[in-house]
Amino acid sequence: MPEIRNMTMNFGPQHPAAHGVLRLVLEMDGEVIERADPHIGLLHRATEKLAESKPYNQSIGYMDRLDYVSMMCNEHAYVRAIEILLGVTPPIRAQYIRVMFSEITRILNHLLWLGSHGLDIGAMTVFLYCFREREDLMDCYEAVSGTRMHATYFRPGGVYRDLPDSMPQYQPSKWHNAEEVKRLNENRQGSLLDFIENFTDRFPVCVDEYETLLTDNRIWKQRTVNIAVVSPERALQLGFTGPMLRGSGIAWDLRKKQPYEVYDKMDFDIPIGTNGDCYDRYLVRVEEMRQSNRIIKQCIDWLRKNPGPVIVDDHKLVPPRREEMKDDMESLIHHFKLFTEGYCVPEGEVYSAVEHPKGEFGIYLISDGANKPYRVKIRAAGFAHLSAINEMVKGHMLADVVAVIGTQDIVFGEIDR
Amino acid sequence: MTDSVQILATRLSQRFEGVLTDCHVAFGQVTIELPPEHLLDVCQALRDEEEFSFEQLSDVCGVDYADYGRADWETEDTTSTGFSRGVSQGVFHSDVTASKSRFAAVYHLLSLKHNRRLRLRCRIEKDPPQIDSVINIWASANWFEREAFDLFGILFTGHPDLRRILTDYGFIGHPFRKDFPLEGNVEVRYDPDKQRVVYQPVTIKNRVLVPKVIR
C-alpha cells in the first residue's frame, strides 16, 4: 500500500502573480491548500533604521519608496507625525492640496490594484484600461513635483510648492507626428487644475467601463464570489483595516472617524460589503474610486477660489526661496543650517495614522529632542493583511491563492520596509 | 476629542490602580506604562471590558532605549575639534547596557466602538528581554511580535511560531538594536570561482554627514 503524503509546494518569489517578492510555502492536499506559510523580507531595506540615521526632512523620500504605488499617502503620515510633534499646522490651502493629492494617489493605487488583480485571475483588458488612466494621474504628479512616482511633495509645514499654471506638453517625435501631438495636448492647454478637472469629468465613465468588463462577468464572479470570506469579528482580530475591513461590513474609515486635514469638510460616502469575500472587496474598492473622484472635484472648486500660501513661513523649518537666499545673509544661514543639520524636534512620541489606500498606515515616531528621529516605526496595512493569508486560503484551491493575494492588494515595499 | 481623552486617562488610572507605573496624555494621545508581569491581565481587561473595548491591536513595536538622549556631537567642542565627518558616530556607549530596562515593547490599541486609541508600553528588564505574548488576545500580534523578535531580540513567551521574519535565513544578530552598525556586519556577493553566493565581512564604511545634535 503506497504512503500518501501532503505535498509541499513553493510559490514565488519570482512568480508574476506574487506581486513582488512573496515566497509562499504551501502544504497541499491534492489541489486543496492545507497551510500557507509566507516568507517575506526579500525586499527588506531597514527603512526605519535608515531614518534613525538621517535628519527628519531627509527621510521623506524613503517614505515614497515604501508603498511605491501610493507614494504621497506614505509621506502624509510621516509628515503629519513631525508636524504634531513640532506643533505646526499647515496653511489651509496646503491642506486642500494634500487631500486632493491623497485622493489622486488613492485612485492611482486602486487602478494598479484593479489592473493587476484582473490580470492575475484572467482579465487582460482591464489592465490596459487602468494604465491608460494611471498615465494621466502620473502626469499630475510630474507637473506638481517633477517626478512621476517618488514625489517628496509633502513637507513638514505644507507642500513643496503651489500648483503650476501650465501642464507639460507632448513633443513631436518618431512615434508621434505633429497632428497626433496636437490631439494629445488638447487637455493640457490650461493649468494643472484644469487638467485634473478634465480628468474627473472623464473618470466616472472609465470606471463604468471597468465595471462593464468585470462586475457581471461570469468568469470574474466564479473566481471571486465566496473566495476568502472573512467575518467582521475575525477581520478585527486579524488587524484588518481599510477596504479589507470595509469589505467585511464594518464602516470604519479614518477619513470619517478621525478626520485629519480638511476631510471633515468633504462630502463623501464609505462603501461597505456584506459577505466579506473577494468580490465584495472588489466592489468596495471600485466605489472608493468614485468617491475619491468626488472629493477631488470638491478640492478643485475650493482651490480655484482661494489662493494663498502653501507652506508655513518659518525658515527654521522650511528652506527660504532661492532668490532670497542669493541676496540675504540670514536666508543663506537658514538654508545652510537646514541642509547641514536639519531641525530639532521636541522630545516626545506620537502615532499618526492616515487612511492609506490599503488600510491604516501609521507612523510611530519617538523623538529624544535631536535632529534625527530616535525611532520610527512604520505600521503598514499590508503587513497585517498578509499575516492572515494562511487563514484566508485554507481549504481553497491553488488557483485561489492568486485571487487572495490580489484581493489583499499586497505591495512588498511597505510589507518588508 | 480632548475631553474624552482625559476621561479615558482618568478611568484607566482608576481601574488599574497600583498596576500602572505611568499614565499620561500628550498630543491628544493616551500612554500607559506597566510592568511586563501584568501585561496579559491588563490587555484582557482592555479588550473585554465594555468601557474600554479595544477590539484591535494596530501595532507592536520594539524600542531599544540604549542611546536615548545622547548627542553625537557636543557643541561646546566645535571650535576646538569640530565634527570629524562622522567617524566616531554611532559609537555604542557600553555603560548603557548596564541600565536595567533597555528594551520596551509598545502596543497601539484601537477601539472602533469608542473611536479611541491607546498606547501601552512595557519596559523589559530581563536580559535577554522576555515578555508574554498577547497573541491569544489579539491574533494580529502574530507577525508584529515576530518582527520585534527578529529586529530587537525580544522573546515573546507563548508565541507559537517565533521565527525570524524580515532578515535573511541564517541571519546573526538583531539589526535594529542601537549597537548593531548601520552598514551591517556581513555582505553577500557572487563568487565566480566557487560559482555560488558567498558571505564576507563588510568592505564599506558608514560615513555620516550629519551629526545627531540635541538642542
Task: Report what the structure shows.
- The complex is a heterodimer of chains A (417) and B (215).
- Chain A has 417 residues and is mainly alpha-helical.
- Helices cover 49% and strands 11% of the residues of chain A.
- Chain A has a three-stranded antiparallel sheet with strand order 1-2-3.
- The termini of chain A are far apart.
- The mean pLDDT of chain A is 90.
- Chain B is an alpha/beta fold and 215 residues long.
- Chain B has a domain at 2-64 and 102-166: 2-Layer Sandwich (Beta Polymerase, domain 2), CATH 3.30.460.80.
- Chain B is 19% helix and 26% strand.
- Chain B has four helices and nine strands.
- Chain B is elongated and about 65 Å long.
Q: TL;DR?
A:
The complex is a heterodimer of chains A (417) and B (215). Chain A is mainly alpha-helical and 417 residues long.
List keywords for this structure.
A: 417 residues, mainly alpha, 8 strands, globular, B: 215 residues, alpha/beta, Beta Polymerase, domain 2, five-stranded mixed sheet, two-stranded parallel sheet, 4 helices, 19% helix, elongated
Alpha-carbon Rg of chain B, integer: 21 Å
Beta fraction of the residues of chain B? Answer: 25-35%
Return the structural class of chain B.
alpha/beta
Number of strands of chain B: 9
Largest sheet of chain A: 3 strands, antiparallel
How are the strands of the biggest sheet of chain B laid out side by side? 1-2-5-4-3
Mean pLDDT of chain B: 82
Helix content of chain A: 40-55%
Order of helices and strands of chain A: EEEHHHHHEEHHHHHHHHHEEEHHHH
* Gyration radius from CA atoms of chain A, angstroms: 23 Å
| Superfamily (CATH H level) name of the domain at 2-64 and 102-166 in chain B | NADH:ubiquinone oxidoreductase Nqo5 subunit
Morphology call of chain A: globular
Cα distance, first to last residue of chain B? 32 Å
> If strands are numbered along the chain, what order do they take across the biggest sheet of chain A?
1-2-3
